[in-house]
């Protein structure tokens, strides 16, 4: 029986899913009413009618805990690699300090948040920062096109706060349901183990919300020159809560004092030919020499409501809040001043999570943030172990007392001095641990809405992407077109056409230039293929010796 072939991948013509050479599926292939062999299901066999959205209260969120479909999907995704991180595997890190300004812009910061690390001018909080690439492996070149992770662990007096973000201020998707699919498209093909532009753009061309990210990632902004001269962003929307329990929406931004530098693809290739660890080396050697990199932490603040006057949803992480409407307000300065003493113990075992917040900081209803909050810490328990928070790099620099016991690699017991060690539960009348007194009211948002699986109302997928395209300098636009054309040149025509259409929706010039660029790259590829054949045809016979 002949196989149908597409790009070297073979699919049995009978549609059974039974692979050649005995590798592949061999389980029961019966389908329920309305299904066929291509119907997406959970591992319980439940047909999936909506693989795009979490179940949320109204289409803005928040998400609810009974999202079984999402939890099955994301918890399996978190366990796909042992022990290397599934994402952010290649990293470098350093210790430092965050110094608070005591204000947000010109206003008292207590107006917006009761978080103690911000409230006093000159207050210093120790930090550890891990920079990383996202989609590539632990020993991959640091010149590859990729978002860069920018994760900061604050060891505050109230416990740890992890601000986990990227160098770019937007993301590909706005709903956590799609995160495993996004990363799978950027990882190597499960058959031939190669990353391809076709896989990446097959996902993107069916995900219009990704176009804003594409406008950055495939331009020079997709290859920062180093970690010191790189912006950082919390990406997602969070909340600040004051002493009265009132909240505002907030976005975090790190601005490097040494400026921002990016590389074109050609420049990055020249560097990679000489040194594929250049960013790690740059960070380490500058700190060693005493050239301590600094970033100012700035925030944008918005009232906690839907803001229907905007043409986008403020919880949408594929969007940027306009700086002219929501100015960047400085709150403090971070300085990195100490290199790790052991890479594995500190950088590799450092574990971050978006759910790690201190009093005065809170979650927004951002659906990506809520999905990340489960996924990140779940990944660390799997990757490093159930007791990963007992490792020195992850442990808070303060009192810890819990009723959590045992588990793999228990380093010590989190008991308090004088505690009855027979009691590992709460409440108890036998000298066990007690709840802390509450010093300020909880933030208590009110929700009214149906529990749904829906996309947000104000998608507006193309406006900010088009604006970014027009804001690029000429050399940045040239690099963007060249990089996209090269990645799309050998993709299926349907993917090429969809990407041209999406780019045209962002800006007609972008679409036209991409069409021309793909045609030019395909012509070059044809000549390369001809050269392969000519090598044999033009070669001279030689006698063996």
From TrEMBL:
InterPro entries hit by this protein: Catalase, Catalase_AS, Catalase_clade1/3, Catalase_core, Catalase_haem_BS, Catalase_immune_responsive, Catalase_sf
The entry's keywords: Heme, Hydrogen peroxide, Iron, Metal-binding, Oxidoreductase, Peroxidase
Gene Ontology CC terms: cytoplasm
Domain spans labelled Catalase core: 41-434
Region annotation Disordered: where it falls in the sequence: 1-60, 414-445
GO biological process, one term: response to hydrogen peroxide
Residues that coordinate or bind heme: 376
Cofactor(s) needed: heme
Polar residues bias locations: 36-56, 417-431
Family that this chain belongs to: Belongs to the catalase family.
Protein name: Catalase
Organism per entry: Hymenobacter aerilatus
